[in-house]
Design a protein that fits this description.
With 264 residues, the chain is an alpha/beta fold. It has a domain at 6-140 and 155-178 and 230-250: Rossmann fold. It has helices spanning 18-31, 62-69, 73-86, 88-96, 111-116, 118-128, 140-143, 146-163, 179-190, 192-202, 208-221, 238-250, and strands spanning 6-12, 36-40, 54-55, 102-106, 132-138, 167-171, 228-229. Strands 3-2-4-1-5-6-7 form a seven-stranded parallel beta sheet, with helices on both faces. Helix 2 crosses helix 3 (73-86), helix 8 (146-163) runs parallel beside helix 11 (208-221) and helix 10 runs antiparallel to helix 11. The longest helix is centred in the middle third of the chain and has 18 residues, at 146-163. It is globular, with a radius of gyration of 19 Å.
């Protein structure tokens, strides 16, 4: 390859579908002739669904920290972030051993711990290089209400502010929504006025001022931007996600396939 690989960090609330999305997008890339390296950054990941090429659990495991230091899950995640930062050179070397057009990073489910730890910023800077983007996954179960949608926007804005990287907001598991529900969520993302109306309509009287002020704060920061609907289950929106990453990282220029595309 003539340039360093694109790095995509997947963030979002627990249950948003990050691991499933990473797996599906990696499969899409490989089926279209691109090399993808999947990196698990969650020391508490359970199960084998992700099948990462590089797994942080080879260096740091959440269960081991809990047993060794008598920590709870959150305390262990905090300790793990600092320990991962100390192992970052070894992790980076393991990643470099894999030829890749794209590096896909599955981040811990506790998005607040990931976003607010200084160690996490150091990890992202060290592993992301100069061609990195963060994708924040919106869980449709949380985004269905206007207040939930605004809460996810605030989390997304916080992640973007903390890591100072280009952001792609993705609606995961869009197949779980009816066409009407999907249309409403996409309209909220594209038309702030409609979201503002929905916030006011859904707020109880004591909460109305707070809900309205939170929405105005988001508007003041800048345009909300779009929300890309995807479904790992139905394999929809993955090409559009690739196009958006390429738009950000390469001005829309398409990659040359690294090898022959795998048969579908």
């Amino acid at each position: 390859m003539s340039e360093e690989p694109a790095a995509v960090f997947l963030a979002g609330t627990a249950g948003a579908g990050k691991t499933t999305f990473v797996r599906a997008f990696a499969d899409w890339l490989r089926s279209n002739g691109y090399d993808a390296t999947v990196v698990n950054l969650d020391p508490g990941l359970e199960g084998d669904e992700l099948a990462p090429d590089v797994d942080i659990r080879e260096w740091v495991r959440l269960a081991d920290l809990q047993d060794e230091y008598g920590l709870g899950p959150n305390g262990a995640q905090i300790a793990a972030a600092d320990m991962i930062a100390l192992k970052i050179f070894e992790v980076k070397q393991a990643i470099a051993e894999n030829s890749a057009d794209y590096l896909l990073f599955d981040t811990p489910g506790q998005v607040e711990l990931f976003a607010f730890r200084e160690a996490s910023r150091a990890i992202v800077e060290a592993l992301g290089g100069d061609r990195a983007v963060i994708s924040f996954l919106f869980d449709p179960a949380l985004a269905r209400t206007a207040s939930g949608f605004v809460s996810l926007l605030l989390l997304s804005a916080t992640v973007e502010f903390r890591f100072r990287l280009p952001m792609v907001n993705v609606l995961a598991k869009s197949d779980a929504l009816t066409p009407e529900q999907l249309g409403e969520l996409l309209a909220w993302a594209e038309e702030p006025g409609r979201l503002g109306d929905a916030v006011e309509a859904g707020a109880r009287t004591p909460d109305l001022q707070l809900s309205t002020e939170l929405f105005r704060a988001i508007e003041t920061v800048g345009p909300i931007g779009g929300l890309l609907p995807t479904s790992a289950k139905e394999r929809t929106g993955l090409e559009e996600f690739y196009r958006e990453c390429q738009r950000i990282l390469a001005g829309g220029e398409d990659l040359e396939p690294s090898h022959e595309a795998a048969p579908n």
